[in-house]
Amino acid sequence: MSESTTTDPTGEPRTREQGEPAGKKWLSGIVSLIGLWIAVSPTIYEAAASMTWNNVLVGAAIFLLAGYNYYRIVNAYPTSTSVMSLVALLALWTIAAPFAFEGQVAMEGLDVAAQGLVWSNVVSGLIMAVLAAYIAYAAGTAVRTGTAAGTR
């Protein structure tokens, strides 16, 4: 069977067969879709303005970053460990944000503890943090095949 070989930006040849496992691709896609959910969830649940903007901005960032990682994997580039680490940190912020904004939300007359948005953020953030941390960890421990660093 013939493999198509291309050259990546560093000048090293790569083939489609050397790409990331399909599991990382689908996990990145799932994290991206959960990020999209975080961005649109304030339209479903009643939310204070501060929580709405936080969810839209953080959710959009997660959607774009995890989507970028999905794109990299689909095009046979290695997983970006730093991007997925940032996604994991943003997911942790998604968990903490409802509690950080609790005083602000109380001033706006909404009871944040009773909102479905809080539980949506906590559960979604937990799932995203675990998946993104796993992807970053697996990418960091992957053994690269080819020539040793500094040799040609």
From TrEMBL:
Pfam families: SPW
Recorded superkingdom: Archaea
Keywords of this entry: Membrane, Transmembrane, Transmembrane helix
Residue numbers spanned by region Disordered: 1-22
Composition skew (Basic and acidic residues), residue ranges: 11-22
Domain SPW repeat-containing integral membrane: 26-133
Record-annotated membrane-spanning stretches: 26-45, 51-71, 83-101, 113-137
Protein's name in the database: SPW repeat-containing protein
Species per Swiss-Prot/TrEMBL record: Natronorubrum thiooxidans
Organism lineage string: Archaea, Methanobacteriati, Methanobacteriota, Stenosarchaea group, Halobacteria
